[in-house]
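Our platform keeps sequence and structure together, in a single record for each protein. Nothing more is needed to write down the fold, since each code stands for a local backbone conformation. An entry from our holdings is shown next, in its original layout:
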Amino acid sequence: MTGPTRAPDASERVREFERFIGRLLIVVTYTAVAFLAVGVVLLLEAGISPLAGGPPLDLTRIATDLLALAPGAFLWLGILAVIATPVSRVITAAIGFARLGDRWMVGVALGILAVIAIGIASAVDAG
């Protein structure tokens, strides 16, 4: 006969949350590397030099270019996944801290997201 199941304490929940974030970062990183590797192989297969420069980012064409096995689409998805890695970590952290009831850390995570958003907006505005 087993004893009653106890609820995890706060430190166990934090460790579980940190493991989840670690797994998320691993998955996103491997996904980015896979997209970049496929893009490089397609470049080489097409006889295009990686030093020749690449196509501009056009989000409206990514799906079409993926289906056409265009190297640029895979390279851009890899780059976007690399960029999304820290952002996804901060978003996940904000959600996790909110679930743990840590308002201070939720505020810190949201502040970091605001800085990232300002940086992206500034870069887009500068062209």
Remarks:
- The chain has one domain: 12-126.
- The helical segments are 10-45, 62-67, 71-100, 103-126.
- The CA atoms of residues 37 and 107 lie 37 Å apart.
